[in-house]
Every structure is written in structure tokens, then in C-alpha cells.
Amino acid sequence: MLDKFERTINYLRISVTDRCNLRCVYCMPEEGIKLIDHSSVLSFEEIAEFTKVAVEMGISKVRITGGEPLVRKGIVNLIGMISKINGIVDLSMTTNGLLLEKYAQQLKDAGLQRVNISLDTIDEQKFSAITRGGNIDEVKKGIAAAKSAGLHPIKINCVIKKSIDEPDALDVKKYCEENGLEARFIYEMDIEKGEFGVVHGGSGGDCANCNRLRLTSDGFLKPCLFSDISVNIRKVDYKEALRFAVEQKPACGNSSTSHKFYNIGG
């Protein structure tokens, strides 16, 4: 699919839940959030059928996000459903890693190819402070399990404030080099203010070459993270929704108040 700026749109990011087992300071308020009602959340069947249509129209890369996708009950079954769709060449997941030790092999067996794992520091106390109570040892065990399962390459998402030369970022980079992981550094974003930057070591934040669409857990297809443009896939034909999103994709992101960072998967 080509948008009006001649960008090839072949990447679909699917948020399967707005729930998370952490409360990272830059993502979610300490008291939590008003959660989407379970009745509004897309079923696995809806997600799989929409993804099948999207692939028929040109999507070849799919990423599962959240919230934290591994807290969604039955997530391994969804991976199995999506992995069976002919035409997907890259099926991945972004996770905080806390539950990866339990699920890594199951996910691999179901057809998941690789994972991105969030890790902003390797300092145990700083990690606990940033995540408001997370245990970094669980993340490290998850990384080890992902390596053992063959979820490769494993990319580490490290949020930075101003520079890749920040002390925690340098420590994460060293940790990745020592453990055969790929580091990606992502500027802390503010969706409402339109603050973002190009990802170091990745392709995010590069509007001129953006190739992605985003599906929220409650069924809204968005052409841009930093835009309020969306279409409810439950109210229009899937192909029509996809065509609309591609046609309405802006040249560059501006800002959005319709969704938050924690419920659209970044």
C-alpha cells in the first residue's frame, strides 16, 4: 500500500491490551489508569481476521504490543493464529520481559520470531524506581529465556531523555554488547505535546520513511501515533478502514489527545 507521500505502508502494530504489570514513570501514572472495559477489547478472532485482510492488502510486518501483551490471557494462542497467516515475514512483540521466562518457548513454538524488551537501566534500584517496583532480575531471566528459545534478534528498548551518552544508556549499551543483544535508544515521548525523536538503532520517529499503522486494543486503526485520526474497524469494512488509514496518513506527526502512550504500544 502506498500513501499520498509515496511511502510503502507494510507494518502493522497491534495493541492487545491497555493493561500492564508495571507503572513506568514516563508511561503511566502511579495510581494506574481507567482501563478499557473487557467488552470493548478486540477478540483474538477479530484481531486475526483483520490482520489477514491487512496482509492481503500489503502488510508483511506485524508487531504485538500493549500495555504489556503478555498479561493478555491466551496471548500464545493469538500468536499461533497470526503466525499461520501467509505473507507475514516478520512477527515480533514488544514486552517488558517480566513474564518472558514463563512464555518465551511457548511464543517461539507458536510462531513468534523475535522480541523487543524494555530496559532503561541495569541498575537494580534505578530500575525499581523507574518501573515503580519492577524486579530487574525477572527481566534478565526473561532475556535469557528468549535467547534460549531462539527469539532472535533480541532488541533492547532503552528510553533516554536527551542523549545516548547518558550514564544509564551507556550502561545498557555495554550490557547489550556483552550479552549479544541489540540496543535501541528511544527519546522519551509526549504524545499530547508532540515531542519525539528518531530512534537510535531503529526506524521509529523518522516520519519521512514511516511505514506503519497502529491498531488499538479497542479497535481503532490509527495512521500515526502523533495524530487523532482514526477509524473504528468494528464500524466499517476492514479493507475500507485500511484504505482510509493509508489515505489519511499525515506527512509528519503532530500531537494526539485521543490515545495515550500506554494503550497504543508506542
Explain this structure:
The protein is of the alpha/beta class and 266 residues long. The protein has 7 helices and 9 strands. The chain has a single domain (11-263), classed as Aldolase class I (TIM Barrel, Alpha-Beta Barrel). It has helices spanning 44-56, 75-83, 100-110, 124-131, 136-149, 167-179, 238-247, and strands at 11-15, 61-65, 90-95, 114-118, 154-160, 182-187, 212-215, 220-222, 231-232. Helix 1 (44-56) links the parallel strand 1 and strand 2. The chain starts with 10 loop residues before the first strand and ends in a 19-residue tail after the last helix. 41% of the residues are buried. The mean pLDDT is 95.
Number of domain modules: 1
Can you tell me the residue ranges where pLDDT is under 50 for at least 5 consecutive residues? none
Report, as a whole number of angstroms, the end-to-end distance.
22 Å
Major sheet characteristics: 9 strands, mixed
Q: Which CATH architecture would you pick? A: Alpha-Beta Barrel
How many strand elements?
Answer: 9
Report the mean per-residue pLDDT as an integer.
95
Strands in their spatial order, largest beta sheet: 6-5-4-3-2-1-7-8-9
CATH class: Alpha Beta
Query: Remind me, CATH topology?
Result: TIM Barrel
What percent of residues are in strands? 15-25%
Gyration radius, in Å: 17 Å
